[in-house]
Structure prediction request, 323 residues.
Amino acid sequence: MTNEATGAGDAAMAHLDQAVMGDVPRLSGADLLAAAGVPAEVAARLWRSLGVPAARAADGPAFYEADLAALRGALEYLGPDPTSDLGLQQVRVLAGAMARVAEAAVDAWEAGNSGLADPSGLADRRAALEGLAVYVLRRQLYAALRRRLSQRDEAHGAPVIVGFVDLVRFTALTESVAEEELARVVARFEEVAYETVVSGGGRIVKTIGDAVMFVADAPEAAVGSALALVEAYNQDPLVPPARAGLAAGPVLAWEGDYFGRPVNLAARIVEAARARTVVTDAALHDALVGSTELEWSPLPPKRLKGCGRPQLWAVRARSAPVA
Prediction:
């Protein structure tokens, strides 16, 4: 690294307090705990769940007014028992999600040559990101509340269709291309997943390396999204071919993730599927077998780890009749 680059980096570090936190640290750990009126052990557990250093009473000025406001806000939101298992779970989920958002933002700013050493520009980008994050949270909260209210009469979990789509030969690809090219592949993989699944009426649960997990409430939306997604990857010159596995049934929705037999089954099905195919369980086949837009083919029984030998079906869009 050149001396010029090093100097720019040092200058950027010197401005991080103002550009990101809006102030310089003025509070010691003792100041923070006293102002918030919270015992040290309670603050320490909250801080660890947030993924930031604990507020130790012996520390010198290491905390910001924003830390104090956040600690007070957390105590107000979490109620009389802020270190309950349920309360800390919420904090950990939020911290994990925001950590990923932060890393993705910095990656994008750096890749776009946005001038990380420019304190005024950095402050502007931070403020814009905060506004976007609040908006996205509100929209996602609204959608989650609508789903939960519509499902509250379900006695044994909300029945949904779970889908996994993964890329074929991705491991070999990671060993044969440069990091920059691999980053473009992963970015394109996620871009296509979000565009296709959301447009088809489903919702992305998570991406895991070369795989995406999604859910849908309607069988048509689930199968349509899987078919469209596999086809999109197969046609994309940058991304390897894909395959999909789908299963239907009641699941437990928890902290933005889903658990239950359909999740396990869909994950096993995609492992057994061939490239460029969409494979479903019998429940999803039975729900859509009358569709005039789909063609079904039974697959030979195959043992799936932890799931027995379920009947599986390959599905594809019905070809348009030749004029």
Q: What stands out?
A: The chain has two domains: 3-128, 155-317. The longest helix spans residues 119-151. The chain has a mean pLDDT of 85. The longest strand covers residues 242-254.
